[in-house]
Amino acid sequence: MKTKIFGFIAIVAIAAAVALNVTLSNQKQDAASMLALANVEALADGETMTDDEFTDQTDCVACWDDHNCTGKDGKTYSFSHRE
Prior knowledge:
The protein is α+β, with helices and mostly antiparallel strands. It is built from 2 helices and 4 strands. A hairpin with a 5-residue loop joins strand 2 and strand 3 (about 75-80).
């Protein structure tokens, strides 16, 4: 009798752990989906700048060659070179 009760408790505990894991996994996927959506919306909002604005803000010039430029803000920009 004790073995059946212990087995039942073990099955309930495993089922609860699986349910919790599924719930947490879904929450993480929802957060990732929201972040991806925010990135797409930011791109769609037209947060772009002209070549002249990019050069004025960074002291780098955009180019098609695979060069890197460290701007005056300390960030590294790919496909650009120093002005």
